[in-house]
Amino acid sequence: MDLSFARLLTLLELLQVYRQLNAADIAERLEVSPRTVRRYVTGLQDMGIPVEADRGPAGGYRLRRGFKLPPLMLTNDEALVMVIGLLAAQRLGLSASGSAIQGALAKLDRLLPDTQRAQVQAMQDFVRLGLEPVSRDHANAETILAMTSAARDETSIRLGYRSASGDVTQRIVDPYGVAFQSGHWYVVSWDHLRDAIRTFRLDRVLTMDVTNETFQHPEHFDVIEHIQRAIRELQYDIRCEVLLDLTPAEARTRVSPTDGTVEAAAGGTLLRFGADDLEWAASYLVRLGCDLVVLQPTALRVEMRKMAARFRAAARRPQRETN
């Protein structure tokens, strides 16, 4: 049944405001024909809304006495977005347990009409997300809410923070924004202790108190770009430069912003990235799936030749016979 969802909701609002309306009154208010009104009434009934019809000259349509409309009405697209959002929140480490997610889904189920509830439950049971789960580190929802509120209000925060080495420090920060990147939640802030912009993992925040101090956001500051650059510029023992036989646009679809930088160069695209060991760097380049020339370091060329030799040997190896 192809019906305007907006008009269905309008009809529902009319039936809540007025005790009873006949088809002519509804048709006039919705700017449709009386025949279309009957289709809309049927549409509401199919959604589980108890619309009753009284026959006769004084008849009309009304909601069943005592019926309380659930405060939530969603289109199918809206319901799907909400379910996927909740499932994604769990996969992205917004809760250490599934209780918050399941509680939100249960409330969603309770507030929906019967027919749509069944559809949403089917989404929960059969929609799967191919997101890498965050199994070790979880962001506290209260921390994210407090951080984003402080960023909005331009209010400084006093943090108790545990570093990767386990050291705990107290510091005042001016939060610029929160972002999820590479399996972790971060806040980018001006750190008064270091007198510089710093990125903090939210799962390492131990205590947090809003202060009375205020600050001003820097203009045109991109939180996610800063985090990607910070991850990309970690101190690696090996710095690599490789000429890819790709356009810059093609290279950006294969190289994550946290892996390295790409820029146009004569004969292709120049990729710069860091690595802790040569074998990983060689494997990474193989996964890019394109022709390339290693510019530096020379030792990476040697590692690529070793890897190529292993591949050639594997290709020549006879297939095992099976019984």
Residue-averaged pLDDT: 84
CATH architecture of the largest domain: Roll
Strand/helix succession: HHHEEHHHHEEEEEHEHEEHEH
What is the CATH class name of the largest domain? Mainly Beta
Number of domains: 4
Give the terminus-to-terminus CA distance: 59 Å
Looking at the structure, the CATH topology of the largest domain is SH3 type barrels
Instruction: Label the overall shape.
Output: elongated
Poorly predicted spans: none
Number of strands: 11
Gyration radius, in Å? 29 Å
SS element count, helices: 11
Question: Which structural class do you get from the secondary structure elements?
Answer: alpha+beta
Largest sheet: 5 strands, antiparallel
How do the strands line up in the largest sheet?
Answer: 6-5-4-3-7
**Estimated share of beta-strand residues:** 15-25%
Helix content: 40-55%
Describe the structure.
Helix 10 (278-288) crosses helix 11. The two termini are 59 Å apart. It contains 11 helices and 11 strands. With 323 residues, the protein is α+β, with helices and mostly antiparallel strands. The strands form 3 sheets. Strands 6-5-4-3-7 form a 5-stranded antiparallel sheet. Strand 4 and strand 5 (184-191) form a beta hairpin. It has helices at 5-17, 23-30, 34-46, 76-91, 99-111, 114-126, 141-153, 223-232, 248-252, 278-288, 298-316; strands at 51-54, 60-63, 155-162, 168-181, 184-191, 196-201, 205-214, 238-244, 260-265, 268-275, 292-296. The protein folds into 4 domains: 5-63, Orthogonal Bundle (Arc Repressor Mutant, subunit A); 76-126, no CATH class; 141-230, SH3 type barrels (Roll), CATH 2.30.30; 234-315, Alpha-Beta Plaits (2-Layer Sandwich), CATH 3.30.70.
